[in-house]
Amino acid sequence: MFPKIPGVPAFVSSERANQGSGASKGNSSTTAKDFYSKFSSPYAYQRAVWILDDIKNFINSTQSTLKDVQALRRAIHERNFSPSAIGKKFVPKQPCTPYAEQQTAEILTDFDSFRCSRYTTLGDGAALRRLINAKFRNNELSKSGTTVYHTAHSESSDYQKLVENYDKAVDGLFAHQVSILTNNLAHKLTISSAELESIQRKSNKSAKVRSLLDTLITPSKLRKSQEKTALSFKSALKRVHPELARDMFHR
Fold it and tell me: Closest by alpha carbon to 227, among 157, 168, 166?
């Protein structure tokens, strides 16, 4: 018997399945069932969704480079085909930012936990491997295009200020403020309930803020306009930490 996971029903909605799997657009129940059926239990399914979401956010993040993404892909590939690599501490083979090193290490820790868990099977590991490979194929090539888009923004835009002051948010927010902020954005439907759950599961305050910011930067059905998303974040931030809001957005 697998442990009960809060928020994971016996059958999951197609929205959540599409969100985690990177499946094609559409809300058919067949798509949801197909993704869910790849795993042996709700436990394996939910952990896979979280890992895939973190990889997607890392690829889309303004704080990571194409080389960072390729380094993560190599590390996961090594773990898939060399069991002795599982559990090894991630040591960058090339210079990278503290953000990239920390995020890569966290994703690999979750991946190792999934592979070694008594509640996942060899079939679960194979399914996750295929989904991760698809995630990289579908998103990695867009990394350079994302960078061009960021630099093309006006310097006065709220979105550009959010990107430029990413570290200020990570360093300036307290744990209780992060909780209020994420709940506020979920209430305003800027982030989904599944994204909220993924953010809240992070182990520490800094990881929660990075997950929130990377989620906001990643386009979705709820975030069709990056400028409107940044404005929603600024408005919510003013309520929980007005000094930080002024510092980040210069208003």
Answer: 157
- In sequence order, what are the residues at sequence separation of 6 or more whose Cβ sits closer than 8 angstroms to the Cβ of residue 105? 89, 90
Alpha helices of the chain — where are they, by DSSP H? 14-21, 29-36, 42-60, 66-81, 98-116, 122-139, 143-152, 158-164, 166-172, 175-187, 193-200, 205-217, 226-240, 242-249
Residue 197 tokens read as 């759950």
Q: How many CB atoms lie within 10 A of CB 14?
A: 19
Burial class (CB in 10 A: 0-12, 13-18, 19+), 140: middle
Per-residue confidence (pLDDT) for residue 51, from 0 to 100: 96
Confidence check: pLDDT of 154 > 50: no
With vertex at residue 148, the alpha carbon angle to CA 151 and CA 251, rounded to the nearest 5 degrees, is: 25
Query: pTM of the entire structure?
Result: 0.78
